């Protein structure tokens, strides 16, 4: 099955998405997500100018060979732009192969390992009271696992609390907006938040929290220890993970489960974390970690050390990525949980999909392929809009900090 054409579609139905569509001589097409929040056009150019010319004429069934060609053949390996581009190709080719087989993608991966995929939603509030109300609302909608984030007294803006309900879109301006940050205020506030949330929901609901890389390792150890009484499902992105060894210090001070990896691009970014059992959940994504082919390798390594998957699933990943992730989740034996942040109505209309949610669980559907399509005519009505993620500065002296 020869690849005859491949093209990049950039649209912004509420936020920017980059989609690769591959066409074949047998009339089958496949699509892959290539969205890199705040750097979308870099991936679009990488695909259009450097990858697509290399795809024309290749056998669409040779997924592994094409993956290796794009990874090894570029010489300059890894990085978010390269791996997001490779992921788009990989996802589109798996979509085509599953359509050719007349099967949903999970069947080609090895079939179901479970009846459904447990997902968690995002309960955000300007203060503790509002966050508790949102947690209870998510529970009433059937969610079994809920991430809780709250504004911090004395800070004008905090990650996790923003515009939108049922979805959270942090990219908010044509140029990066600047937020303030205080570790001291946050460390005092977070345990109070979870005391109130746990008192409200009891012990039958899983609770999660995202630190978003903003603490040093010893500060993260302190936070994890202070949250132990509230039995979190995980504490996410406790510290920047460029230095994987940093998680050893956190591990020494708390038994709160640790999750990391949404900004990782390859197995090398998490190799030491997994092998040294410094984390409990690996959060790499289909789109930013080289596609389904590479994500399977990461999951297989993690399984050796009883580390489970917990794929990132925010709105800066398109429904294509969500659909592909759900097929992966349904198959992967060491599944943990899947993040599910709902897209806007505009996005759902541009990307019609077969996946669905009920009673805290999701299923990808049984449509051949990964079950997500793109309405190109509708997508054309939403042109690209430059939008950046915010940055953080220390409240006391203005030093640029981790957002």
Provide the residue-averaged pLDDT.
96
How would you classify the helix and strand content by structural class?
A: alpha/beta
Note the total helix count.
13
Rounded radius of gyration (Å): 20 Å
Q: What percentage of amino acids are in beta strands?
A: 15-25%
Order of helices and strands: EEEHHHHEHEEHEHEHEHEHEHEHEEHEE
Runs in which pLDDT lies below 50 for 5 or more consecutive residues are none
Short synopsis of the structure:
The chain is of the alpha/beta class and 403 residues long. It has helices at residues 40-55, 63-72, 80-101, 105-109, 128-140, 183-201, 217-227, 246-253, 271-275, 291-304, 319-331, 345-350, 376-379; strands spanning 3-11, 17-24, 29-33, 117-125, 145-150, 178-181, 206-210, 234-236, 258-260, 281-282, 308-309, 338-339, 356-358, 361-363, 391-394, 400-401. The strands form 3 sheets. Strands 4, 5, 7, 8, 9, 10, 11, 12, 13 and 14 form a 10-stranded mixed sheet that branches. It has a 3-stranded antiparallel sheet with strand order 1-2-3.
């Amino acid at each position: 099955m020869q690849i005859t054409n491949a093209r990049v579609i950039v649209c912004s139905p509420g936020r920017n998405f980059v989609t690769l569509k591959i066409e074949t001589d047998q009339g089958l097409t496949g699509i892959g997500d290539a969205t890199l929040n705040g750097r979308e056009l870099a991936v679009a150019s990488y695909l259009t100018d450097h990858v697509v010319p290399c795809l024309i004429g290749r056998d669409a069934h040779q997924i592994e060979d094409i993956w290796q060609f794009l990874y090894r053949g570029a010489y300059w390996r890894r990085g978010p732009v390269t791996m997001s581009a490779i992921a788009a190709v990989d996802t589109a080719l798996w979509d085509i192969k599953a359509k050719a087989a007349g099967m949903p993608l999970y069947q080609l991966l090895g079939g179901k390992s479970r009846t459904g995929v447990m997902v968690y939603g995002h309960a955000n509030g300007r203060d503790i009271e509002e966050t508790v109300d949102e947690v209870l609302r998510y529970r009433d909608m059937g969610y079994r696992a809920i991430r809780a984030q709250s504004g911090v007294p004395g800070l004008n803006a905090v990650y996790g609390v923003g515009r939108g309900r049922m979805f959270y879109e942090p990219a908010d301006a044509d140029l990066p907006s600047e937020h303030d940050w205080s570790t001291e205020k946050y460390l005092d506030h977070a345990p109070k938040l979870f005391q109130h949330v746990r008192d409200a929901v009891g012990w039958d609901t899983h609770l999660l929290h995202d630190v978003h890389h903003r603490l040093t390792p010893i500060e993260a150890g302190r936070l994890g220890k202070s949250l132990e009484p509230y039995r979190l499902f995980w504490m996410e992105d406790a510290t920047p993970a460029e230095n994987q060894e940093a998680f050893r210090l956190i591990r020494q001070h708390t038994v709160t489960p640790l999750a990391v990896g949404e900004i990782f691009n390859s197995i090398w970014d998490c190799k030491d974390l997994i092998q040294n059992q410094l984390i409990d959940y690996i959060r790499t994504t289909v789109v930013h970690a080289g596609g389904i082919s590479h994500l399977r390798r990461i999951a297989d390594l993690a399984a050796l050390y009883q580390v489970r998957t917990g794929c990132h699933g925010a709105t800066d990943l398109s429904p294509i990525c969500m659909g592909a992730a759900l097929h992966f989740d349904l198959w992967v034996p060491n599944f943990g949980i899947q993040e599910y942040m709902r897209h806007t109505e505009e996005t759902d209309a541009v990307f019609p999909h077969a996946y669905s949610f009920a009673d805290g669980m999701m299923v990808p559907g049984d449509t051949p392929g990964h079950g997500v399509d793109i309405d190109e005519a509708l997508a054309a009505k939403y042109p690209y809009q430059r939008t950046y993620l915010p940055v953080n500065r220390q409240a006391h002296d203005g030093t640029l900090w981790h957002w």
